[in-house]
Amino acid sequence: MMISILTRKLIQELLSVNRAPCLSLYMPTHRSHPEKMQDPIRFKNLVKLLEKSLVKQYSAAEVNEVLTHFKTLGNNREFWNHTSDGLAVIGTTELFKVIRLPVAVEEQVVVADSLHIKPLLQYMQSVDRYHILGLSLHEIRLFEGTRYSLSEVELPSDIPKTITEALGDELTEKHSHIASYGGLVGEKSDMHQGHGGKKEEEGKDIIKFFRVIANTIYKNYSKPTELPLIIAALPEHHRLFHKVSKNPFLLSEGISVNPASVSIDKLKTLAWEVYEPIYLQKLGSLVDKFKQAKANNSGSDNIKEIAEAAAAGRVDTILIETDRVISKRLRNKDTGIFIKADLTQPKSDDLLDDIGEMVIKMGGDVIFIPQVEMPSKTGISALFRY
Description:
Number of helices: 11
Number of strands: 14
CATH class of the largest domain: Alpha Beta
Helix content: 25-40%
Strand content: 15-25%
Largest sheet: 4 strands, antiparallel
Distance between the termini: 44 Å
Oligomer: single chain
Mean pLDDT: 86
Low-confidence stretches: 174-196, 339-347
Number of domains: 3
């Protein structure tokens, strides 16, 4: 079973789905026992709610077809042994996506004629997300974090975790102690103890290894997600990694600490010390751009104007207040006209969600930011293309 990485490309794919029924399931999950033992049970109960809703409109055969992958996932022991903090499962008769999230999400199921992706948008389009690469020769670890959370990303088995896995037969003679040195801060380095030219050969091995890891992380994580990458490693490894890496998302400043030697909360604190100035700069730049655009009549915080501009493809970027819900929905996505929504479904019938989806479909950017940072009181601000 393939686990999907949350990217802009995936969001575009989900937004293009227009064949009912569209099933969206969200739930918090757990990383450790005994709490995680309840996760598959809760998942199956949510699938039953989907089924209860489906049987009102579809035949037994149609219901069985669209729920087959959901039920298979519920019985997949291996999957439930490797959960994160949150889970999104999206499905139709033609599509099935499983997305592990490093943050807890509110439990909910939605059956509709389009997919409910607001929880995914809110997380993906937040400005405070970043990756941490824990770099040593005998343990590679990847973390994904925000201002408020940090969790480890489970790397697929085909991604090398050590210098031996990465270089294989290309590694200098096996009796070399290369795997015992070069760890993260707090690990002893035996690098001086080579014989003759071994030290030089082992140094070349390290460079080769870092190049493999740099390329692998960029290709599989940094490029598709476009998240900033922070390195946690020995100071000399920072220098070598920067030398071989061509990753434009790699930050110049890193963390000199062994992630295994500190708590997840401590690592999050150290990461935020690195990333907070960049985060604040990004937010400040976005707010300044909006204020200038509004003064030049090329931006607005009027919801009606923004909805009409989004429908016409005129929105370059919108800022949406995190956790703000406006219980209206677009009646006509070609014109931007909206009407009151079903107030019994405030989480899925949200005007800001509809406008955000339109902007993304038209190639624009959607960014969720905290209320205290919003440059307007309407819950939304937009920069127009023209």
